[in-house]
Amino acid sequence: MPSEPVVFSQPVSMDSPSRFFNRELSWLAFNQRVLEEAMNTRYPLLERLRFLAISGSNLDEFFMVRVAGILAQIYAGVTTRSDDGLTPQEQLDAINSRVEILRKTQDEYFHILKKEMEKEQIFLISRDQLSKQDTKALKSVFEDSVFPVLTPIALDPAHPFPWLANLSQSLIFSMKDKKGTERKALIPLPSSLPRFIRLTKKPARFIALEDVVMQFIGTIFPNFTVKQSGSFSIVRNSLLEVDERAEDLVRQFETALAQQKRGDVIALVMNQDMPDELASYLTYKLDVESFGVVRRNGVLSVRSLSSLILSERKDLLFKPYKPRHAERVRDFKGDHFAAIRKKDMVIHHPYESFEVVVKFLRQAAKDPDVVSIKQTLYRTNKNSPIVKALIDAARAGKDVTAVVELRARFDEEANIKWAKDMEQAGVHVVFGLMNYKTHAKISLVTRKENGKMKSYAHFGTGNYHEITANLYTDLSFFTCDKQLCTDAALVFNYLTGYAQPEGLKKLAIAPLNLRDKLLKLIDKEISYAEEGKPANIWAKMNSLLDDKLIDALYRASQAGVKISLVVRGICALRPGIPGFSENIKVKSIIGRFLEHARIFCFGNGNKLPSPDAKVFISSADWMQRNTMHRVETLVPIQNETVHEQIMGQIMQGNIKDEALSWLLHPDMTYTRVSESPQAFSCHQFFMTHPSLSGRGTAKLRGIVARQKKAVRKEERTGVLPAVKPKRTRTVKKAAAKVVKKTPVKKQKKIVRKSLAQPK
């Protein structure tokens, strides 16, 4: 289902709000594109289900943060208009209309995918589809493994309405006892239990946890008759309120996190058949605004559908992809420092392994010649090998500094834990600047070589997170360039000691000069256009919101600069308006991997791609929060091979992509560029073609020739063949066969194993 057009009646000019798209509606359009991948038949079935689940998770977080923020403005009486001219209330009204369509589409796609899964022998059944054998097997397991962890809660003056966790799901009942007295009760579904319980293996049959509880409700309330019941889930405000002037910032965050868990309920999601009486009762008790009350004709928690993605059904999943390792490092027998001394290199994740970043720091931790390690940490994973390497280095007597950002949304608790662990090991832990998040991704290692100090730096576009590095497309740039390393040291001094860096030779950083640097680069392209020279800009980012940069791009378009933007998510710029932005093309790439790298290319008087172009990688999107309220880096790429790889291979591959691309139109609608199985896919290309800068002893000239030949071949032949559904037995026959062939004892074992699986 395509996005609904957003109509703008105002004329577009450089001083009118209509030159911008609304941030919130643009984000919802992005989530619609994610949802549309659930209907992309070029993908395996369970991967399509994954996209549906991701759209649900995205929408939950949107409410927890963005809608919560708009509500806070409304309650505070704020009437300030957004860049596109809407008050907070007008934005909320527009959001509600768009979310209603999005949720209906999710429910529709769920039922479509459910039918397709049944053809592949994967069933999500309801209570009325349970056979006698199913019920017998479930009853025993319910009594042993489910009943003991359930907590029925009476709802009366002696039992006030309980606190319910964010994103939790519960059952509510209206019952009568033997005397005819009416009672209400609640059963929160424990997070320790899986959302779906598996009944049989072949075919794979599941039933929702709430249906299992309802099936045996008589065991829980033996002296009552249930008259009405329903299922519901809640979404809470998850904004953090922290006084950053506090002397103990860690303690402030710990207190704020505890308060966050008790945030107001901003969405109450109920099943379609929830009785009106119970719905009104819940709305009153949870104090939910009417716009936040939702009835769904599908699953309440769309995000939970990810638990139906069966790892054993490899035929319904993407073919496993194993990242390549940097051949350059192998040439030097695993010595990262020697490889970097030889030449700068860039690693393209997830096509190339993140292990090279981990091993770089592990080698630094063990190397007796390394004297210091400095590291920024915004997000990292559980049992992080990066954190372990820093701890090992500190214990080995090296001077280790970690700049930990406590304000990384939804990772605050994890970052507090890592900070405490590192401090105990002797790492100097710093929490950065009071008023600016530290979002820059930098490692700086200094070692003694031939009686002198030499530094090695890593600059990244993504986080030091081993798990997401397998899912996000990002760049890791390694260099021992003296000026870049000195600049990195100045940035660390800024973060740890408030020493504002002066005399940066190559780096530009936010909030000091990154935006100004970008504006100057755009203005330079305008001057080339005015001189009649080629003027080109290619830029790739996650979000485009900064009004100053957007206006600069409009001016560039009007001057004749040809601009191609790859913006995955939010885009406030309106492209393709005659006489205003007709030289700007914007597209979004949505596919197997999440686009996350930030790359900016400026023609410098040449048509792109060009060896004389100016190329940069960055940790920053073009948003005011990044350019003015965070510490970010803008890193120039000057090594010839790395320059060619980033601009001529990675960026050009993004520009050429058709299979995964959505084109943005002036009315904020998006259309898929191509549905042809032969369309060029940049993801498929990067998965099958090695990068340039990590090739080591391979001859550069031969590589470049093969890369160009490969691009032409991919354009001709295409990728991602269509997935054809198999013909299978009907649902009824398959279910009947299970009952006949699966012994009750074996079925109980399957159900118990399902309950024991981690969520």
Number of beta-strand segments: 27
Name the CATH superfamily assignment of the largest domain.
Polyphosphate kinase middle domain
How many domains would you count in the coordinates? 3
Count of helices?
22
Instruction: State the name of the first-level CATH class of the largest domain.
Output: Alpha Beta
CATH architecture of the largest domain: 2-Layer Sandwich
User: Low-confidence spans: pLDDT under 50, at least 5 residues?
Assistant: 1-9, 242-250, 718-732
Tell me the distance between the termini. Answer: 31 Å
Overall pLDDT level: 88
Cα-atom radius of gyration:
28 Å
Sheet with the most strands, sense and barrel status: 10 strands, mixed
- Structural class comes to alpha/beta
The CATH topology of the largest domain is given as: polyphosphate kinase like
Shape: globular
| Strand content range | 15-25%
* Helix amount: 25-40%
How would you summarize this macromolecular structure in one to three sentences?
This protein is of the alpha/beta class. It is built from 22 helices and 27 strands.
Secondary structure elements and pairings:
Layout: H1 23-36, H2 45-75, H3 88-119, E1 122-125, H4 132-146, E2 153-155, E3 169-177, E4 182-188, E5 196-200, E6 204-208, H5 209-215, H6 217-220, E7 224-236, H7 249-260, E8 265-271, H8 276-286, E9 293-296, H9 327-331, H10 336-342, E10 345-349, H11 355-366, E11 370-377, H12 385-395, E12 399-404, H13 412-425, E13 428-430, E14 437-438, E15 442-449, E16 452-460, E17 472-479, H14 482-497, E18 508-510, H15 514-530, E19 536-541, H16 547-559, E20 562-567, E21 584-589, E22 594-595, E23 598-602, E24 614-618, H17 624-629, E25 630-637, H18 640-656, E26 661-664, E27 670-672, H19 682-688, H20 700-717, H21 731-741, H22 744-756
